[in-house]
Design goal:
heterodimer, A: 7 helices, disordered N terminus, B: alpha+beta
């Protein structure tokens, strides 16, 4: 009798443990289901319409006034100039045409002009033209977007990074990257980012660096991460280079700014 | 209208046009004139103007580049050095290389259109990483003895990297203190 009690208690304890595990499993399944839900995609913000070129109204007005003055001067000199409204409407139309057709792109941006068919070097066709660090006169193309080619920075915290000795760390990372105009995949970057908000480059940088960090740390011990963050940052950058290049981007710097945690998983 | 009156009117309008299209840079900024012709090499497709310059209406445009100096404060709240944790702060200034035009051009290509805050953040990331690397390499026991060496290392590595985007680095202060001793 005395010997049976512990036996019953053990069985009861096992049943209780089994119930707890089943509940835990159910919670884990719910969590997984929740994570597998399609992420609600927010509607993309409208493409930013480039700001009206500074000085555009004054350019139109000045051109019109100059034309009217010339017409009046010619008229007073006895030269037949025709009706005055032509001297008003024509400069306005000309100025509007010039302002629409002249596209200026700085060294830090690429302007994408749509509605222009052109043949690439490999023979394939593209329906757009890219202008970088130049001024072009384009009557046929319509301005689609301005892409920022400057360096963009992002700082973020990456949690639940597991090292090779099964230690869970939290890393604060900083990265700066840009769309690389000299990359062979530059057009791929244009197609990817045209029409996207400026934060898309930062978000892509974050994704690449996060993935590379997890990959690199999986083959290093936690102690190495604390002791040699510089070497690891170089390894993360080297790992990320390929992914950046494939997207037509180039990293400027990838740095580890803080390492926290250290508990066994 | 007589030809003389028309000429006077044209002269006035020209003067108005000139005054409106003349851009002036402040003491801590440069104006970058964009819109050169496409067949020029990329480096000639823009021009950095200090002081003042003329921008053709409709055919060119101007953007302003803040030259700094920008104050940058880097703080590493907790760095594990063996069994100890330390806090490090670094105060410095970064500015564009105005004395070296070839480096300033790098800055224009990398950072034109960026705000002062964004330029600061880029410098913070670069220097934060270099400071953490130097600190963990030197180690806390030797820090006091190697303070100058560490400062030189952060300055050397940070400056080399910032040079590539046309920024000049000047370190004002570097402080490190132990904040916790783990048993």
């Amino acid at each position: 009798m005395l010997g049976a009690m512990p036996y019953r208690d053990d069985r009861e304890a096992l049943r209780q443990r089994n119930r707890e595990l089943e509940q835990e499993l159910a919670r884990a399944r719910e969590e997984l289901d929740r994570r597998d839900q399609p992420v609600a995609i927010e509607p993309a913000p409208p493409v930013a319409v480039p700001a009206r070129r500074a000085g555009a109204p004054s350019f139109v007005i000045v051109l019109t006034v100059v034309a009217v003055a010339v017409a009046l001067a010619l008229g007073s000199a006895g030269v037949a100039t025709g009706p005055l409204w032509i001297w008003i409407v024509a400069p306005v139309l000309a100025a509007t045409l010039i302002l629409r057709a002249v596209v200026i792109a700085g060294p830090h941006e690429a302007v994408v002009l749509g509605g222009i068919a052109r043949k690439r070097r490999d023979g394939s066709l593209a329906g757009y033209r890219i202008v970088h660090a130049a001024r072009v006169f384009s009557l046929g193309g319509s301005l689609v977007d301005r892409l920022d080619l400057g360096i963009q920075s992002i700082r973020f915290t990456l949690g639940e990074v597991i090292t090779s000795d099964a230690v869970e760390l939290e890393l604060e990372l900083g990265a700066c990257a840009r769309i690389d105009v000299e990359s062979p995949n530059f057009e791929r970057a244009v197609e990817r980012f045209a029409g996207s908000p400026d934060s898309a480059v930062r978000e892509t940088t974050r994704e690449i660096v996060a993935t590379s960090t997890r990959g690199v740390l999986a083959s290093h011990r936690a102690e190495e991460v604390f002791a040699r963050p510089r070497r690891l940052a170089e390894a993360i950058r080297a790992e990320a280079e390929h992914d950046f290049a494939a997207r037509g981007m180039a990293p400027f710097v990838v740095e580890i700014l803080a390492v926290r945690g250290g508990g066994k998983r | 209208m007589t030809p003389l009156e028309a000429a006077v009117l044209l002269a006035l309008i020209s003067a108005l046009l000139v005054s409106r299209q003349r851009v002036r840079a402040g003491p801590r900024e440069a104006v970058v004139r964009l819109g050169r012709r496409e067949h020029y090499p990329a480096a000639a497709a823009y021009q950095v103007i200090h002081g003042a310059g003329w921008v053709w209406p409709a055919l060119e445009r101007a953007e302003r580049l803040p030259l700094g100096p920008f104050s940058v404060e880097v703080e590493l709240a907790s760095v594990k050095l063996g069994e100890r944790w330390a806090r490090a702060t670094l105060g410095c200034r970064v500015s564009f290389h105005t004395a070296r035009p070839e480096l300033l051009r790098r800055g224009v290509e990398a950072l034109l259109g960026r705000s002062a805050g964004e330029i600061r953040e880029i410098a913070e990331i670069v220097l934060g990483g270099k400071l953490l690397g130097a600190l963990t390499q030197v180690g806390l026991p030797r820090f006091d003895a190697d303070r100058d060496k560490m400062r030189a290392e952060v300055l050397f590595e940070g400056a080399a990297l910032l040079d590539t985007i046309g920024l000049e680095l000047d370190i004002d202060s570097l402080a490190i203190e132990v904040v916790e001793v783990k048993k």
